[in-house]
Amino acid sequence: MSITEIQFQAQTVESAPEQAIQGRSQWQLTWRRLRSDRVAVGSVVVILIVAICAIIAPVFAALTGHPVDQEYPNTGWTLQGLPVGPMTHGFLLGTDSQARDLIVRIAYGARISLFVGISTTFVATLAGVTIGMISGYFGGGVDAVLARFIDAVLAFPFIVLALSLAAVFGPSLTIVLVVITFFSWAGISRVVRGQTLSIKEKEYIEAARSLGAGPWRIMFIDILPNLMAPVLVLATLSIPAAIVFEATLSYLGLGIQLPTPSWGNMLADAQNDFQVAWWYLLFPALALLITTLAFNLLGDGVRDAMDPRTERIFAAASGRRGRRKRRRVTPIDVLSDPAQPTLGGPA
Amino acid sequence: MALTRFLIRRILSGILVLWIVSLAAFLLFFLRPRDTVARELGGKTATAPILALITKTLGLSQPIYVQYWQYLYRLVHGNLGYSYVDGEAVKTILAQDLPRTASLVVGGALLWLIVGLSVGILSAVRARSFFDRFATFGVLTGISMPTFVLGQLLLLAIFLPLNEHGFTWITDSYQGLSQGVVPWLGYYLLPWITLATVQAAIYTRLSRGSLVDTLGEDYIRTARAKGLTERRVIYRHGLRAALTPVVSQLGIDIGGFLGGVVVTEQVFNMGGIGQDSVAAISQGNLPVILGFVLIAALFVVVANIIVDMVYAVLDPRVRIS
Question: Which residues of chain A from 127 to 156 reach within 8 Å of chain B, CB to CB?
Answer without folding.
Answer: 151, 154-156
